[in-house]
Amino acid sequence: MSKSDLEIATEAAIGAGKILSEFWSNRDSLNISIKSPGDFVSQADLQAEEHLKKHLLGAGMNYGWLGEETGETSGSSKRWIVDPLDGTTNFLRGIPQWAVSVALEVEGQLVLGVVHDPIKEETFSAEIGNGATATALPSRFLKPSTFPQHYLEPVFLLEKWTQLISMQQR
Q: Is 56 in a helix, a strand, or coil?
């Protein structure tokens, strides 16, 4: 039986989280570049995104890609949107509030999203038609206003993620 897009996204996010966790204890020795004032990228970001791209695009589907570090690649009407290290500044400063963010967009509409926090070993996900989960437990009561803010600041996918959760509550 083949895996669902949500299962693939969750596995990819957790795998990227493992890569980031390895860098976490040695973050002082990371090579860091400045993309723009206040916007940094490290080898941790790049390796996590490389993992995500390989895992998500290697799943046998012809999907497009939009990565924070690697940009956009055309594919089909479906594309993965990722921020491999959402909270790079926190990560680099040793603040344990960062996560891996993965979303799937189909014909311009976000249909699923996964946020994985390797430090707390928590995973949040939502998919249109299937509700939201927090660390694999249904979260029918989770509202955008009560969603843990440390997962959403400064989330690359904040607007889309909030929109997805709001759609689940209608």
A: helix
User: From the CB of residue 35, how many other CB atoms can be counted at a distance below 10 Å?
Assistant: 12
Q: Which residues pair with 110 in a beta bridge?
A: 105
For the chain of 170 residues, list the mean pLDDT of each consecutive stretch of 10.
Answer: 87 96 89 80 93 90 88 85 93 93 93 94 91 64 45 42 49
Residue 15, token pair as written in the block: 């795998």
d(C-alpha 85, C-alpha 43), whole Å: 11
Of the candidates 32, 34, 29, 52, which has an alpha carbon nearest to the alpha carbon of residue 42?
A: 32
In whole angstroms, what separates CA 73 from the centre of its chain? 17
Q: Does domain 5-168 have CATH number 3.30.540.10?
A: yes
